[in-house]
Records
---
Amino acid sequence: MRESGGSGETCVVHDGRPQARRRLQMLVDTVAGPEAVAVARDPDDLLALLAATPRAIAVLGLAETEPSGLDVVRRVLADAPGTAVLVAGSGEAHAPAQQALAEGAAGFLRWEAPRAMIRTLVRSLASTAAGDDLVPRPAVPSARGSVEAVASPEEGLHDVVVDLDAQRRLELSVREVQVLIGVSRGLTNADIGRRLYLSDHTVKSHTGHLFRKLGASDRAQAVSHAWRLGLFVPAPTRRAGA
């Protein structure tokens, strides 16, 4: 019997194995609703669906012995920055799932988990519970085709967007940008870890990578450099009557 209540977001599911893909579709369908599930035939189709579906959640199958699933995760994280990625598989896929989480995936959906737990995990990616408040939103280009950073680092830290061109230029992963957004909001490593389901050690490791890539020596300087280098820009302000 279908459980009531969807996630409120579209889930784009993909697994390179046809039977596993069908199983994944059925699993997500039971917790998100059929109208909220799209199935990608291959990685190119997956990226096309994600590009055409704002705020979609990518649900990607993993197998313990097949590296192709992890390759797809990496491609989505690289080519669709800002997409929330949920990996799925059996308990035997723990190792590749942990690698996917370390590289930027937001959670691991286990086949054998209770449906209520799976529903909560899928829904959480549409809320702040799984760090959605730390998912970088792409900046909207201005009429001149560029993004204008008109605010100082002290302004708008609680509502920023990310220039994807700058993210690629600085070679920052989605997870590193998530951590940096948390740093910009004054969150501790523990706070960031709770939102992103990461250990303090992992957050500290990401922070160290950020310092190196941004040429910073501390958290405040990392945020300042992010603004100066054009990574952070203020979120567009909605005009009255618009």
---
Amino acid sequence: MFEKVISVFIEKIEGLIQSGKTDLNKAEDGISLCVKTLSKLQKLVERDDFEDSQVEINFFKNMKPIPMSYLIYFTEVRSCELLLPKAGNSHKVRFLEKEIKKINKFFSANNSFVNYMEQSHNYLDFQFFSRGGRRDFSFTPTINYYQNPEFSTSHDMLWAKVQALYRFIHYIREKLELIQPGSSGDFRERQPKLLLWTGSKTSLVEIIYALYLKGDFNHGTADLKTIISAFEDFLNIKLPNYYKTYGEMKRRTDPKAKYLYEIATILIARMRKDDEK
């Protein structure tokens, strides 16, 4: 039941991110969408609750943080858009650099918890993501969690903020580059242009979509546009019509993931050949 709500939310969020609206308008629309989604999830929890503790932990660890993290992210973006100095690039850059310092301070203060999550540990999940877990655990959140005790755990809000700030970092990086190209150099080292993608763009889009859907970038918080941009930078290529390309891929006859099938076949064949030596 939760999966359907989250699936619809993700589809709407992707559409909003790809829209031509300003960052401020995206943030305001995003906040509204997040609040409505969280309200739907809360009503489902209140009505049906959870089958067992594992379902509960999965919800507070992997589902609720999706709309909650976007709510925090869009709130941060809205605040930044409204408070960003209106004149003087140097003032704007200074403001954004201060935002980066705040983010670094947050991650430093919550280093133990972030490390626990980044290492994909689960031995403390009951404490962190179950309503029956302790509220005074040593990995203390630096932000207040949602006040309704039936719709929150000690750390689901903190985990949502971690994911939100991963997105916010990318927003600041893009903002810095627009204001003063090269000003984000200290924030993100630029990769030397040594690699060129010489395969088809369709094949690359196929790989990117698979990686995006697997959710292995930033704990699944990286949106498709961010991942596309990273690949464009790294491989010195432009992928302007990736949504259209994906649509064309879906209309293929089997195998629909043609390139992934081919490279998997090549890899398996090589492994078997190596084993025969």
---
Amino acid sequence: MHTERFIRVGDLNFYVQSWGDAGRPPLFLVHGLASTSHMFDLIAEPLAAHYSVYAYDQRGHGQSDKPSDGYEFEPIARDLDLLADALGYVDQPLTVIGHSWGAYTALYYAATRPDRTAKAVLLDGGIRPLRDLFPTWAEGEIGLAPPPYVDMTVDDIKQFIRKWQAAGYRPETEPLALTVFDLSDPHNVHAHLSRANNMLIARALWEFEPTNYYARTRCPLLIVNAVDPGKSISPEMRTYALQAETLAPSARVHWMIDTIHDIPWHRPHALTAVLADFLD
């Protein structure tokens, strides 16, 4: 069964989707930067065969509240703590699956809350330090900035989605991708996540060093890396994956070839099989 609701945590309301029997072990799905909980709509139902599954719009995103602060990793992890508490999992370890920025969050959560993390999965994120791409914040501030979305119509956004997903575009995922945007004015569409809040998250990501966290994890850790269609695994990504396997006590890596970054949309069935093998 799928439900949608708002849960108030402190001063913030969070939009939360849930699937499955509430009596099963809890599994939380954590989306990426400038995304929404609908990133997981195509994989949540099969995961609910064995878990009580929750996906939520993170602060600043989608239908959740949008404060002007609290976008560093610790407040973001605390949001997950408080949501889990509100859902009745005060003393129960969580399985956490994060995508992109959410993968970095999942790694941070597993490392800083080892007693509260049963298993963690990093989906195409969490292992590459962004300073490798942008050595200075001046460069990162440019490279990690969101598109301006000026005077864009719904049709413009749909074209943008097709280009963004490229070889991974599937018509059935277009409505899910549209949840990233505020469509209330069809002639002035913009992202739910403000530019200011986007850049706060980008700065936290740029400052994050994954190797500082691997050794602190104690739970089984699965790293799922996408390899873009027509490309091979880069030497840099092999190095980062090896670092994770070497430094994290219980890490393993799975490569998904010919797959775009948004793995849960592009290859949901293949991803579900990979996750089932790890989670069972």
